[in-house]
């Protein structure tokens, strides 16, 4: 049976969607305000060890999980780590990979481009930050009888979720850094993840150290990143 609140499409219930309509003036003002707030976001490498409640991390992950995904499969697992021993193990293994990258995997031009960021193979934030959130992408899922079930647009879906997670972290008044120690297989081993999950991104989450300095970088202008066809 259908009503004003829902209808049945292909045998599945669809609920009524409600969205507030605002004036063009308000629309422009809100979009500009959000942009200016987002433009204040910076990647931070110097973290305080100040406590962050678990409830905050739960809310951040729930926010990320509102992201759209291929066929609504939500092909992600977010592992949140506050345990000091596990963080120390992650740092140890990450720095092994980072050392290999800086000494033999990365090109001279790549390392030159990184100079402005002040980054190197040492990753103390992996222990200092009160939380690490590791995003895993699910290449496939398992059914009730352990049969493989397809997921779709997995990389794109998890990328969108991680972008929303970064925004949620900023909205909470915290900072983060996108970290991808490659290869990242050690994360699945340390965290005992199942065979269908692949480490995608590691995000330390917490408050910035005081004082903290970040590179004085400039973002590309609009005409460098967008093309309008009117």
Structure description:
- With 230 residues, the chain is an alpha+beta fold.
- The chain has one domain (43-212): 3-Layer(aba) Sandwich (NADH Oxidase).
- Helices cover 38% and strands 17% of the residues.
- The protein has helices spanning 24-38, 54-64, 84-105, 108-114, 125-128, 154-171, 185-190, 222-225; strands at 6-9, 12-15, 76-81, 131-138, 140-142, 148-150, 175-176, 197-206.
- The strands form three sheets. A four-stranded antiparallel beta sheet has the order 3-4-8-7. The protein has a two-stranded antiparallel ribbon with strand order 1-2.
- Strand 5 (140-142) and strand 6 (148-150) form a beta hairpin.
- Helix 2 (54-64) packs across helix 6 (154-171).
- The relative contact order is 0.19.
- The mean pLDDT is 94.
Question: Which helices and strands, and how do they pair?
Answer:
Elements: E1 6-9, E2 12-15, H1 24-38, H2 54-64, E3 76-81, H3 84-105, H4 108-114, H5 125-128, E4 131-138, E5 140-142, E6 148-150, H6 154-171, E7 175-176, H7 185-190, E8 197-206, H8 222-225
Antiparallel strand pairs: 1-2, 3-4, 4-8, 5-6, 7-8
Helix pairs in contact: 2-6
Which keywords apply here?
230 residues; alpha+beta; NADH Oxidase; two-stranded antiparallel sheet; 38% helix
Short description:
This protein is α+β, with helices and mostly antiparallel strands and 230 residues long. It has helices at residues 24-38, 54-64, 84-105, 108-114, 125-128, 154-171, 185-190, 222-225, and strands at residues 6-9, 12-15, 76-81, 131-138, 140-142, 148-150, 175-176, 197-206. Helix 2 packs across helix 6 (154-171).
């Amino acid at each position: 049976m259908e009503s004003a609140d829902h209808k049945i499409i292909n045998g599945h219930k669809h609920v009524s969607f409600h969205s507030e309509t605002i004036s063009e003036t308000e629309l422009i003002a809100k979009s500009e305000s959000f942009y200016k707030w987002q433009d204040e976001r910076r990647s931070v490498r110097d973290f305080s060890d100040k406590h962050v409640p678990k409830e905050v991390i739960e809310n951040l992950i729930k926010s990320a999980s509102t992201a759209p995904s291929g066929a609504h499969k939500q092909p992600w697992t977010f592992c949140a780590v506050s345990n000091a021993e596990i963080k120390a193990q992650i740092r140890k293994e990450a720095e092994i990979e980072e050392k290999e990258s800086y000494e033999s995997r990365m090109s001279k031009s790549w390392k030159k481009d990184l100079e402005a960021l002040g980054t190197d193979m040492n990753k103390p934030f992996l222990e200092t930050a009160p939380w690490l959130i590791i995003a895993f992408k699910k290449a496939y899922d398992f059914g009730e009888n352990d049969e493989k079930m397809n997921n779709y647009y997995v990389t794109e879906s998890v990328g969108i979720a991680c972008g929303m997670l970064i925004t949620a972290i900023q909205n909470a008044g915290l900072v983060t850094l996108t970290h991808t120690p490659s290869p990242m297989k050690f994360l699945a081993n340390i965290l005992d993840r199942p065979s269908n999950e692949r480490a995608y991104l590691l995000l330390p989450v917490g408050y910035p150290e005081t004082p903290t300095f970040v590179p004085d970088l400039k973002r590309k202008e609009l005409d460098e990143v967008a093309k309008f066809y009117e």
